[in-house]
Amino acid sequence: AVHDLGFGTLEISSQSAGDEPSGSISEVLEAMAQPLPIQFKSVRGERVVWHSAPDDASREIQALELSAAWFKSLEFEDVDAALAAPGMRLRGRIELGLETPFPLAADLGVEVEPLADMGLDEPVMLTVLVDGNLRELRLEVQAEEPAVALRGTLNGLEDTPSWDLQMLAERLPWPLGSEEGVLLDELTAGSYGWIDEYGLEIEARFGERSPLGFSGLRGRLVGAGDMDGLQIDVLDLSSDAMALEGSGRLDWSENLEARVGVDIERIEPAPWFAAWGEAPPVSGRLDLAWREGRIEFTGRDFEAVGTIGRLGGSGSLDPDDGRVEAALDWRKLNWPPG
């Protein structure tokens, strides 16, 4: 047994030597098993730097304390580690088996420093529970403020990783920590699959503090994605004053681009135009595309009984300077509405 081990800077490289092919995760872990048990009563380090692939950024632990046992498994107790980026501190225990199916268990408290634009004064506190093995790993992550929970399974971590995860967030303000901004009453999300073929479903429910003044706003998104992008098959939004549905796609195969087409069943403009009053709502079709930092739009068949006989148009918006270029075509336009 090693009673005390201290070091200044420890650099670890997981890169292959020369043209030698890198081993699989299973081969690497099995090679780490020891013929005799080794115990470290106390380990203290000032800095640990891990280098993986040549083009990948290194990962750094700024301070580390733990006790450890190393034999047919790696057992870390009383872990206290400060990660450089993002600002994060881990405390707890981790155990990893070095024989197939490589059991893994962890019970960690995680303290995450908020980003400057998150609107939080205090760190976000997480609890992380992991149990299972690299073939099927159960995961549970919980935060109290804001109230967020993530649960599910990770599978095939030895070769072809896949996942089946569900998330629930309640009473989530934006900006975070704000008492006057938008308040998301409930957000649920689920995703399953692997990086080349996955599904995604998100549902959101707002209360009185809804975006754009739409009280009782609800939204739903259903899609499927791969390495190149996300196909949005269902996009529904509804509130007391609005109902629309659409579909679209996010594409990041080269440059980030997005497009969405929306059929507006009804929308009441009164939240933006007080003069609209109780006049009949607007309906129509709107197509949006985002590319190279600009939003392009095309609208057609917009109607409102007694106000708009038919309205269409197209144009673009530059979010950086707010400049709008548009061409409109309408007939039977009556003002004031009604």
Structure overview:
- With 338 residues, the chain is mostly beta strands.
- The chain has one helix at 25-31, and strands spanning 2-13, 38-51, 59-70, 73-83, 88-97, 103-112, 124-133, 136-143, 147-155, 162-174, 182-194, 197-206, 218-225, 229-239, 242-251, 257-267, 282-291, 294-304, 308-318, 323-333.
- It contains 1 helix and 20 strands.
- It has a 20-stranded mixed β-sheet, with no helix packed on it.
- β5 (88-97) and β6 form a beta hairpin.
- The model has no long low-confidence stretch (mean pLDDT 90).
Provide the descriptors you would attach to this structure in a database record:
338 residues; mainly beta; 20-stranded mixed beta sheet; 1 helix; 20 strands
How big a fraction of the residues is strand?
Answer: over 45%
Number of strands: 20
Category from helices, strands and their pairing: mainly beta
The biggest sheet amounts to: 20 strands, mixed
Calculate the terminal CA-CA distance, rounded to whole Å.
Answer: 86 Å
| Computed Rg | 27 Å
Helices, by number, come to: 1
Mean pLDDT: 90
Q: Helix-strand pattern, N to C?
A: EHEEEEEEEEEEEEEEEEEEE
**Low-confidence sequence ranges:** none
* Inertia-based shape: elongated
Helix content: under 10%
Task: Briefly summarize what is shown.
The chain has one helix at 25-31, and strands at residues 2-13, 38-51, 59-70, 73-83, 88-97, 103-112, 124-133, 136-143, 147-155, 162-174, 182-194, 197-206, 218-225, 229-239, 242-251, 257-267, 282-291, 294-304, 308-318, 323-333. The protein is an all-beta fold and 338 residues long.
